[in-house]
Amino acid sequence: MTDLLYTDLAKLIQTWGVDLGFQQIGITDTEPGKHEHHLKRWLEQGFQGEMKYMSQHGIKRSRPAELIPGTLRVISVRMDYLPRDDKILETLGARQIGYVSRYALGRDYHKVLRSRLKKLEDKIESFLVDHGIEGFAARVFTDSAPVLEKALAEKSGLGWIGKNTLLLNKEAGSWFFLGEIFTNIPLPINQHEVTNRCGSCRACMDICPTHAIVAPYQLDARLCISYQTIENRGDIPEKLRSLMGNRIFGCDDCQVVCPWNRYASATGEGDFSPRHGLEDSELLQLFAWSEDEFLKKTEGSAIRRTGYSGWLRNISVALGNADYDPSILTALEQKLDKVNEMVAGHIEWAIIQQRAKFTQTT
């Protein structure tokens, strides 16, 4: 009787999940499989850079039952986030416009997914209480704890991990967020075969501006523009600056060229709609923001993670990469004595780039 109850609950979780705005839900066990070995090797190679939190929890990151004792199942979900009518290629090609990774244009996804996952957890608990089952325990995650969420999503049937290390889905590409519920109830797991459909394609590897995908399924975060513009709190290596183009927060190139993203759907989630025109704002306009403006216009946004200094640093690099414009040079020079030493170093680099371009045009 209890097994039938959990089977019914698993079906309801699918229905409730869709009602809450998730596009797909899968259920898996807690065995790490091959992914634990991959994590160990990745850390041993130092590909995590300064992201010390990647190794702080040791093997718990790949073992849900050790991270949260009593965990038997993981409910994985995905939610689309690609904005409607987005002109990604046009923005990347406009050197005076700042490119912000599409996941960060709207409300912080951590807040959106966590809220929906909590509602799903509440529905599960109410169902169990109504059927006289006690002792339910659960915890929700969304890129906020030491969890191998892509590996768990792959095991639960949401897709496969591609050569760019992102989760790919044959019907939805990769423009989606992931979230999880760890729980102690023995739900039936999704039975499926994980089929990797990348084949001989290497479009993501070839397009990466900094060649951060050092081998199929291996990303050196230290070379990744997303890491440098978001996680790195210090100087961006000079050898990478000219390769960053106008990317001021994150990078989507490996998703843009992925053939599977021809099947991606635009999000219907209003919280992920672009705010403050950040999908195509001019670099000089963004560079002129005061710290108060930055804090106000990034309230509730993932962009807050980079901080104001990181924001100015990233935009300085992009301005250095822009075509020569006397107004850019003026803005850089005027800002130079109003920022900290770290940002000033990047502004000085940008000034040198702009002056060199002026020389080349005369």
What's the quick description here?
The protein has 362 residues and is of the alpha+beta class. It has helices at residues 2-19, 35-44, 53-56, 64-67, 88-93, 109-130, 149-155, 203-207, 225-231, 238-241, 253-256, 283-287, 291-297, 307-321, 326-335, 341-361, and strands at 24-28, 73-80, 99-100, 138-141, 160-161, 167-168, 176-183, 213-215, 218-219, 247-249.
Task: Give an overview of the whole structure.
- With 362 residues, the chain is of the alpha+beta class.
- It is built from 16 helices and 10 strands.
- Strands 1-2-7-4 form a 4-stranded antiparallel beta sheet, with helices on both faces.
- A hairpin with a 5-residue loop joins strand 5 and strand 6.
Supply the key terms.
362 residues, alpha+beta, 2 domains, four-stranded antiparallel β-sheet
